[in-house]
Amino acid sequence: MNSSIKATPVNKSYIDIDEVNLQSTVLTAIFWLEGIMMPTVGIPGLLGNVVTTVILRKSELDLKPVFRVLVTSLLVWDSICLLLTLVIFSLPRVWETYNLYTLPRLLPHILPFAQISLTASIYTTLAVAIERFICVCKPHTKISFRTGLLITVFIFVFSLSINGPRFFEYELKEIYVQSYIAYPDGELHQSENKSVLVPFPTEMRRHPIYSQVSTVMSILLLHLVPLISLCYLNCAIFLAIRARRHILTSSGRQRRELVVATVLTVIVLVFLLCHSLKFFINFVELWAVIKDLSPQSVWSPRMNVVVRKSYHKLLFKKLL
């Protein structure tokens, strides 16, 4: 249910021009980053997802069924995450009406889905790395297609369960704001009052214990566990590939398996690079929560997500 509050009016008739210029510079940078660069990288990534998914469905590709289903699942989750990222962060930068009237109504509902898709993408990447590890390091171990389907279902249920509380983190409130016109001399003149809907953190989201628990869980489940696991698997796969290159048989399938493993090793390195900055930001946020502070974001992890997921498609095209 929406509630109404009234914004506190500005109690001065002039403004600092330097401050306005600084804010204008920041807004311009955000526009180019989120409004131009992110779609430039993300839209080709979405198109690449579609093309790669179609290629994966071709029966002439000599790929294991479990690998096919895991990679297809990864492409789907990446596409959802990319699409929601563009809808939440890029579209508002180029469409003012959407930013003022549509996005606030959608944000409390689609933001949790974006987090769910990101979580599922991370753990599907981990599942693909585990499958490659078994294929390269334990070549006689077989994983059935049914097992692959069960893994994808488990990842979805797991992602939904740990992100379920996020659906209750924000609520809409209707606020009335007074708009002002700033003249070149710095003088302000009141224009009109406007009513807008704004998402506000709920009482649960503002609770210190919830903030601490959610931040620790995010660092643990979305960073430490996947990053450490991927580092280990990546090193093991790399060593196995280097050790087996000189004893390859004439089997085309075996050579393909090693090529696939090599490409996925590069994907994991991109994953680690892009998530390292977000990992640092979450540690800053955890420190801020412990110190009862509210630090500003020092970097936008959203661009890292877009770059990583789009780069996946270029690498998959190489192996297909």
Features:
about 325 residues; mainly alpha; three-stranded mixed β-sheet; 8 helices
Total number of helical segments?
8
Fraction of residues in helix: over 70%
General form: elongated
H/E element sequence: EHHHHEEHHHH
Q: Based on DSSP secondary structure assignment, what is the total number of beta strands?
A: 3
Largest sheet: 3 strands, mixed
What's the Cα radius of gyration?
24 Å
Can you describe this structure?
- By secondary structure, the protein is mainly α.
- It has helices spanning 17-56, 65-94, 96-137, 145-163, 203-206, 208-244, 252-290, 301-319; strands at 3-6, 170-182, 188-201.
- The chain is elongated and about 70 Å long.
- The N and C termini lie far apart (50 Å).
- The relative contact order is 0.14.
Task: Summarize the helices and strands and which ones pair or pack.
Blueprint: E1 3-6, H1 17-56, H2 65-94, H3 96-137, H4 145-163, E2 170-182, E3 188-201, H5 203-206, H6 208-244, H7 252-290, H8 301-319
Parallel strand pairs: 1-2
Antiparallel strand pairs: 2-3
Short description:
The chain is mostly helical and 320 residues long. 72% of the residues lie in helices and 10% in strands. The longest helix is centred in the middle third of the chain and has 42 residues, at 96-137.
